Amino acid sequence: MRQLATLLLLLTCVGCSLLPQPNVLIVTPTPQDSGPTAISTLAPQVRPTDTRAPITLGPAVGADYTIEPTATPRFTAGPPTETVPPRPSTFTPGPSWTPIPTRPTTSPTPDPLAGPPTLTATPIPQLDSSRMGIQLASNMGRVEWDASLTRAKELGVKWIKVQVDWNFLQPNGYDPGEDRLNTFLINIETADQFGFKILFSVAKAPNWARSTNESSGPPNDPQELGNFLTLLLQTKMGPIVDAIEVWNEPNLKIDWVTDQYPFTGAGYMRLFGPAYGAIRGYRSDIIIVTAGLAPTGNSDGTRNDREYLQEMYDAGLGRYQDIVIGVHPYGWANPPDARCCDPSAARGWDDQPQFFFLDTLEDTRAILNRNGHGSVPMWVTEFGWTSWDDLGVGIPDPQADNLWMTENSPIEQANYAIRAFEIGLSRPDVGVMFLWNLNYANPFTLANRDEIAGYSLLVMADDYVQYTKARPLFYMLPQAARSQP
């Protein structure tokens, strides 16, 4: 889900004297608790049934730009978990992929008898598949989920990222017998049987744990997140999960609607502490990942990701040495090798470092190094490029702010993603990289022209099991994701 209509930079030039200054909130960090309250001691809670549609998507990731942020609500989509179509006997195959040849090469003095020049295909790099992953739509019935896993397996990646939507899984209070939770558990067990390593991205507190039902946000009491994680880990998911990302893009107001915490890195650290305690209290080898931050600047609805990360360190992040730092280095319409900045008045995606894959990686590393985390890895928990050329619908509104989405062809989307994998995996300070996304383009997201559809490798059919279109990256990625010796 991509929220970059809320993401964009109010900054109009680097070093501009009219840059808006952030409001600095001085917050004393909450001391770390020794661990969460055990779920078994929690009294049963009787809550009104959540009547909202039970279909949600993955985390917000944006990539649109706008001088003034909008209040456009996030769309949700996906197949209803209550209605599962019959299991098909076969899946829809896609066309084979042949690498596009480069320009023909000839000798300096062509031999007229040698015949036509030979075309040479551009080599696809051979990448370490053990550090490659992709995010799947997660709130699905059994048949849809099995189809998703089958497609992900075809890619050759060894990791999947799954959003754990707390509100969806526990709509009526803590209930280990909740049907949705049990279906989710079976789905995760199936992913393990497929041989995937699994990253959970936990977000979206339920309405009963918040003082407002507006948008999405953390629980009023940060210990509630620790309790929920303990509940999850005490199921059969506990031995299966390999890594847990604590929340998603908390520097976007749309994901941090609360009057209980400040909209700062210090506010996030209040939530991180109990979550860390719950995870470490269960297993010492689960990889704990800080929330990937949306690459953005300061506005009423966004916080500059570089400043926000420094606030996390100011509030005590450096005390945690057994974690990794989540990063969301999106590139908008800029190639992954490009660097900031060569601004053009005709474009709005090339004048700030947040618009560049490499700049976000390198700026994040610099912040880690100066705060005592020089040996702590970064995990790219979301990245990707969007294309709308082949989707058959207009770009998202407001279209004037999203013209950058018309810049990338499906082939460029594929080339940029594979090159970004190559760049990131060549760095010793980058761990696993997760591409956004496999299967978020579906009849609902396309009808609503939701920007998350532009990143999807597959365009799903009405049954959410078959697909009607596979984009070039779906066929190129398996050629790059080779198992390492």
Question: Can you describe this structure?
Answer:
This protein has 485 residues and is an alpha/beta fold. It has one domain (137-482): TIM Barrel. It is 25% helix and 11% strand. It has helices at 4-7, 142-155, 166-169, 179-193, 223-233, 265-282, 305-314, 357-370, 410-425, 443-447, 472-480; strands at residues 127-128, 132-136, 159-165, 197-203, 243-246, 287-290, 325-327, 378-383, 430-435, 458-460, 467-470, 481-482. The strands form 3 sheets. It has an 8-stranded parallel sheet. Strands 1-12 form a two-stranded parallel sheet. Strands 10-11 form a two-stranded antiparallel sheet. α2 (142-155) runs parallel beside α4, α5 packs parallel to α6 (265-282) and α6 (265-282) packs across α7. The protein starts with a helix and ends with a strand.
Please describe the topology of this protein.
Layout: H1 4-7, E1 127-128, E2 132-136, H2 142-155, E3 159-165, H3 166-169, H4 179-193, E4 197-203, H5 223-233, E5 243-246, H6 265-282, E6 287-290, H7 305-314, E7 325-327, H8 357-370, E8 378-383, H9 410-425, E9 430-435, H10 443-447, E10 458-460, E11 467-470, H11 472-480, E12 481-482
Helix pairs in contact: 2-4, 5-6, 6-7, 9-11
Characteristic key phrases:
globular, 11 helices, alpha/beta, 485 residues
Distance between the termini: 35 Å
Largest sheet: 8 strands, parallel
What structural class results from the helix and strand content? alpha/beta
One letter per element, helices H and strands E, the order comes to HEEHEHHEHEHEHEHEHEHEEHE
Number of separate helices: 11
Q: Tell me the β content.
A: 5-15%
Spatial ordering of strands, largest sheet: 6-5-4-3-2-9-8-7
Identify low-pLDDT runs.
1-110, 114-120
What is the CATH topology? TIM Barrel
> How much helix, percentage-wise, in residues?
10-25%
Please give the domain count. Answer: 1
Q: Count of DSSP E strands? A: 12
CATH class designation: Alpha Beta
